[in-house]
Write a structure and sequence with these properties.
- The protein is α/β, with parallel strands linked by helices and about 300 residues long.
- It has one domain: Divalent-metal-dependent TIM barrel enzymes (TIM Barrel).
- The protein is built from 9 helices and 10 strands.
- The strands form 2 sheets. Strands 1-2-3-4-5-6-7-8 form an 8-stranded parallel barrel, surrounded by 5 helices. A two-stranded antiparallel sheet has the order 9-10.
- The two termini are about 30 Å apart.
Length: about 300
């Protein structure tokens, strides 16, 4: 087993490419044996593929002990996702995250899609303060069905809250806005969010489906015969987000890039079978992330 050790001799800000644990659901079923990979197999494959860590869920008890064991064994970082409806719920979550002991950051989907105006701004401000008090970075994800589901509202939040930090996943805005192409008006708004990028969730939408297939050839490279035009835009946004983060990053800061290709129903299926190879495509996103980072 060949794994990249998580030993960093340089102190400049760095990229970490993470695999979404949610994105591992169902993998292995079509590998020949017909059985989904076990928990340890998934962690081992993630490590062997060169990922730096896993973005998963907060667990407790014996399950937490198992996670600690595997993360130590395979030398991986860990971050988690939270789904609070209130500041009190986030406060409780952050306390549990501190007890878990090795959470690098929390990706937050604020489950209040119909909260607007001053109440929404105050809730986000309260969550920002809780993150600072707990000493655990909490990044608000740009996501449908949450407080940031509307692009216009999210831009307003960033204008009102100078310290608001985002996990950027523009696939949600592209599909919600049916952006088969990117208009000048949409581009202007999206550009206003990129300076707040603290992490990225990698997924590509075409304006009709939230997660489209990115054809990858047998050699693991993008298949130019089936080019997806929206991929160019997403790579451009990812690079701008990385560069914006780098401008204010301090030594030893980490930029998380999460390969987050979800299982069905996110993944498109035909007669119950996924049309693409989700694992191979995630590896391609990891390759793209490292290539973009070289240009930061």
């Amino acid at each position: 087993m060949s794994m990249k050790p998580r030993i960093f001799t340089k102190h400049e800000p760095r990229l970490e490419v993470l695999m979404s644990w949610w994105g591992m659901n169902g993998l292995g079923v079509e590998s020949g044996a017909g059985n989904e990979w076990s928990m340890e197999e998934k962690v081992r494959f993630i490590a062997e593929a060169g990922y730096d860590g896993i973005n998963g869920m907060l667990v407790e008890g014996r399950e937490a002990e198992k996670w600690h064991e595997l993360l130590d064994k395979y030398n991986l970082s860990y971050s988690v996702n939270a789904y609070p409806k209130s500041a009190e719920e986030l406060k409780l979550f952050l306390c549990k995250a501190k007890s878990f002991g090795r959470v690098d950051f929390v990706n937050v989907q604020v489950m209040r899609p119909f909260l607007v105006g001053e109440q929404a701004v105050q809730l986000l401000a309260d969550m920002e303060e809780l993150s600072r008090s707990a000493g655990i970075p909490a990044y608000i994800e740009t996501h449908r069905g949450t407080i940031t589901q509307d692009l216009l509202r999210t831009v307003e939040y960033t204008e009102r809250l100078p310290g608001l930090e985002l996990t950027v996943d523009f696939s949600h805005y592209v599909v919600a806005g049916e952006m088969r192409t990117v208009s000048d008006e949409a581009e202007e708004l999206l550009q206003k969010l990129l300076p707040r990028t603290k992490s990225i969730h990698a997924r590509v939408s075409n304006g009709e489906q939230v997660q489209i297939d990115i054809p990858v050839g047998r050699d693991g490279a993008l298949d130019s015969a089936f080019e997806q035009p929206m991929l160019v835009h997403f790579q451009r946004w990812w690079l701008k987000g990385m560069r914006s983060w780098r401008q204010t990053a301090e030594k030893e800061d980490v930029f998380p890039f999460v390969c987050e290709l979800g299982p069905p129903p996110y993944a498109i299926t035909v007669r119950g079978q996924e049309v693409g190879d989700r694992w191979t495509q995630a590896l391609q996103f990891a390759k793209i992330a490292r290539s973009l980072w070289e240009r930061v």
